[in-house]
Amino acid sequence: MTQRRWWFRGPLGLFVLMCLLTGCAKQLPLAPGTTEDDQAMVKPDSPDTGAQPPAEVPGRLDERDRSVTEGRMSGGAELDSEEARNNFLSQDILFAYNSFALTEEAKQLLEQKAKWMARHPGVMVQLEGHCDERGTVAYNLALGERRANAVRQYMAALGVSASRMTTISYGEEFPLDPRHHEEAWSRNRRAHFAILSP
Questions:
Q1: CA atoms of 73 and 42, how far apart (whole Å)
Q2: Beta carbons within 10 angstroms of residue 156's beta carbon
Q3: What is the reported pTM?
Q4: Which of 123, 198, 115 is nearest to 163 (CA)?
Q5: What is the CB-side half-sphere exposure of residue 4 using CA atoms within 13 A?
Q6: What's the CA dihedral at 45, 50, 56, 57 to 10 degrees?
Q7: Segment holding 83, helix H or strand E
Q8: Most distant CA pair in the chain: distance in Å?
Q9: C-alpha closest to that of 88 among 97, 78, 96, 101
Q10: Which helix (H) or strand (E) holds 191?
Q11: Tens of pLDDT, residue by residue, the chain (198 residues)
């Protein structure tokens, strides 16, 4: 049988617990030129060495980046506009033939999408993997799944919670361009973002 500590009994224990929960911790003064939101991101226990922690992926969004770069993808208030939402949905991640590797251009676009998702934390997305018409149905379904998963993993590395993203493969079933030549096929090899919740 465990013995209870005396300070958790009665009104005195309740008072001590309330003090701890309501923040009897000392507040640090604001540095010149900072806001309370900026100050909330500073951890008092860690010394400020001026060095940034190394990022696992270029463009990774840490808490400091979010305070500075959220809303600047296309110029501040425009980020919340219908146009910004449409850009998020209409810009697909394109892939090379028979590949699920992300190009540098794709990574830059994913960094913009991660910033938009950081600005809209309630948004859940579905990542759709698509292929061109060449190859078997089974092969294209598997390749589409790899493409969607590659995008999901990169977005997660950028700081977007994996729980906000689901994946699905459509293979060659829904081509963006129904024509039968290289220009059309290059548009159909893609990962598309669909918003599941506002």
A1: 24
A2: 16
A3: 0.60
A4: 123
A5: 6
A6: 130
A7: helix 82-90
A8: 79
A9: 78
A10: strand 190-197
A11: 444 444 445 554 445 444 444 444 334 333 333 333 333 333 333 333 333 333 344 444 444 344 333 333 334 444 457 888 999 999 999 999 999 999 999 999 999 999 999 999 999 999 999 999 999 999 999 999 999 999 999 999 999 999 999 999 999 999 999 999 999 999 999 999 999 976
Q: Going by C-beta distance under 8 Å and a sequence separation of 6 or more, which residues neighbour residue 75?
A: none
Name, in order, each residue with C-beta under 8 angstroms of 99's C-beta and a sequence gap of 6 or more.
none
Do residues 196 and 166 make contact, with C-beta atoms less than 8 angstroms apart?
A: yes
Identify the structural domains of the chain with CATH numbers, from first to last. Answer: 7-42 (no CATH), 62-197 (3.30.1330.60)
